[in-house]
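Fill-in record for Purine nucleoside phosphorylase.
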Amino acid sequence: MVNAETGTADIGVIGGSGFYSFLEDVTEVQVDTPYGAPSDSLFLGEIAGRRVAFLPRHGRGHHLPPHRINYRANLWALRSVGVRQVLGPCAVGGLRPEYGPGTLLVPDQLVDRTKARTQTYYDGETRSDGVEPNVVHLGFADPYCPEGRKAALAAARGRDWDPVDGGTLVVVEGPRFSTRAESRWHAAMGWSVVGMTGHPEAVLARELGLCYTTLTLVTDLDAGAEAGEGVNHGDVLKVFAANVDRLRSVLFDAVATLPATADRDCICVHALDGIHTGVDLP
Ligand SMILES: [Zn+2]
């Protein structure tokens, strides 16, 4: 384990614990933040010459349910080691029969149905270290990085995994799965997939000027899209395990093709242009 100052990265991956074991020569870095501790240490390594920081979203051993993840600390910790682009893969339920288990969908829109998660760094509330953030209302019409989406889609195609390009991810509070009525409603609204972790990760990344892209892996058909028993956790884990290797390959390829940090010129980089947040970013 090394001090945070000695480790740097420019790409962050927030995902399940199946990923960091594949980074070679991992350096474990413990980072504290003004918002408390992130889900776990950061694991720094290299993929195709890019410095990558991996953060297990649920902590090692998966002890944090989606609603107890400290999303603010996670994004802040990544930024503080130099990360400017983040890939956040997550497992989701399909809301249409054609989005069955094994589908890879790279959403371009998001609906937030979480209920009790802190969604902003700029809430006007004085931090424990005395910093006084302003109240900020950020544009969020397009929640995902267009460059990151391109890299993710190209990486999937390169691995013969025909991805769904675009769609709406609805994020629910959990930890329970949806009722049939909720699921039918989500589908009737035209939304594509449902998950529990993609938000507020996306908006907090934007608030820090980070590029954020999510890749969703469908592990089950959500309750309304399925005639049978509804979702059960065992099936979700099974489908995830069956696809984790190729998802990892896609992520690695995407990392390799993301724009160099210095070349970024997307909406994410300019999200805070002209806005006085009162907070110095790490
Ligand atoms: Zn971007």
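KEY FINDING: The CA atoms of residues 86 and 150 lie 13 Å apart.
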